[in-house]
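hey so i finally got around to running the thing on that chain from the lab meeting. sorry it took forever, my laptop kept dying and i had to restart like 3 times. anyway pasting the input first so we r on the same page abt which one it is
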Amino acid sequence: MDAKDRETAGTKFQRLVDILSALRGPDGCPWDREQDARSIAGYFLEEVYEAVDALSRGDERALAEELGDVLMEVVFLSRIFEENGAFDAAAALDGINDKMVRRHPHVFGGEKVDSADRVLDEWVRRKKEEKRRTSPFEGLPESAPALLGAFLMGQRAAQEAFDWPAAADALAKVREELAEIEAALAHGAPEEIEEEIGDALFALAQAARLAKIHPEIALRRANAKFAARYEALREAFADRGLKLKEASPAEMDRVWEEIKKRRA
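ok and heres what got predicted. didnt touch it at all, straight out
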């Protein structure tokens, strides 16, 4: 990207800042003026998920649109806090620009690193120094989905060398937890069943992490796959004039397997 392209991106970003300023202004949009940080946080999260969906599908056109929506929510939030006298979009940009330069001294300074792993180690070290955290779990987003939280907690623990050597070792722990779920189911105690299922999910998230698979994205794809297959199952029986609940379990299994083969 040359200097002209960068200038154009900056100009367009400023236009977005000006648009949000107008929308929030005295003669702006009534809906936009009513929003606050709490309401925009929900929309922000929704737009991020839609961007991840487009990325997962490999839909570049949709991704460009969704990233624009994410940027809009960033500017919207910045505008709200600017009105409160806290910070503006320029301050947010200053922060990230300074951080990226500061944490990449091997690019913007005189330091030398010999691998991506070393870069990550240095990033973690500098982040700890800057944040002055007393616990590796400080700063984890409480609003994150639980599966994502498990992934992030595993990452933080691994930075202090508390980890399985490889994904296969974590998978062995998953098998152990599955056996404990079976035992809990035999006892029939709801609290115990819940605990063991939670342990299994946590271990599975670490197996995914060690295999360099993001469990949240993997589960979202699995959800989408299930939804598509389920709709195909319903359509298959509807073509016969039947509702799904009117079919036998054996017949549903047979058609389900056929759908899986067709969509493999």
